[in-house]
Amino acid sequence: MIKLKTAKEIEIMKEGGRRHAKILQEIAKLCKPGVSTMFLEEETARMIRERGDKASFLGYKPAGADRPFPASICISINDEIVHGIPNENLTILKEGDIVSLDLGVTHEGLITDAAITVPVGVIDDESKKLIEVTRESLYAGIEAAQPGNRIGDIGVAVSAVVEKSGFSLAEDLVGHGVGYKVHEDPYVPNVGRVGTGEQIVPGMVLALEPMVNVGTAKIKVMGDGYTIKTKDGSRSAHFEHSIAILEKGNIILTL
């Protein structure tokens, strides 16, 4: 069931999203060679705590999971697509890596969700293109998320950008509603057909998140129960914004 947000709730999420975006920006600056994922996790937790907010992912147990997620932020490196755990297997960032930072923040009881992929030092041209295509596909999806359109229209816009690049969208991984919970209805696939799916209406808050792989679309889940990697070991990038649908257009909450 889709739960629409009131104008007041959207204002709360706008402030939460502003704080959220600032934290992501600060963590991105720390992604340098020699830095550990544990340090990034600790800094994320500190920044959230100092603002009086909560880490939405810490202790969250999604449907089908064997255990709650053990960290404040998901950090996924190179062939890791999403849900990398930063504080269990210590990883040191290296020159040339690309790093996805996926964060949920709860402000005054309402959740925003956003992700960015950043380079560590100097990266190769293919990785640069991957990051740019993924970012571009997210904004194409946001542009399609207009009141009166349908959820399928978002997937059409996202996939059009990715298909012309020669890259692939990670299969079975989708966006979703957000706000009262980390994952809410409707689910928002990154592929779709024009005019299909739920109608987009004012009050919806959606987390749009294309995950783009250099190689195959196929994925594999690792033994920790959370980390998802590309099946062929190719690199992946991930961008995400939470957006609110208004009477006329939409606004990006996590910009």
TrEMBL record:
Recorded superkingdom: Bacteria
The organism's taxonomic lineage, starting at the top: Bacteria, Candidatus Zambryskiibacteriota
Record-listed E.C. numbers: 3.4.11.18
Stated role: Removes the N-terminal methionine from nascent proteins. The N-terminal methionine is often cleaved when the second residue in the primary sequence is small and uncharged (Met-Ala-, Cys, Gly, Pro, Ser, Thr, or Val). Requires deformylation of the N(alpha)-formylated initiator methionine before it can be hydrolyzed.
Keyword tags: Aminopeptidase, Hydrolase, Metal-binding, Protease
Biological process annotations from GO: proteolysis
Name of this chain's protein: Methionine aminopeptidase
Reaction(s) catalysed (UniProt annotation): Release of N-terminal amino acids, preferentially methionine, from peptides and arylamides
This protein's GO CC annotations: cytosol
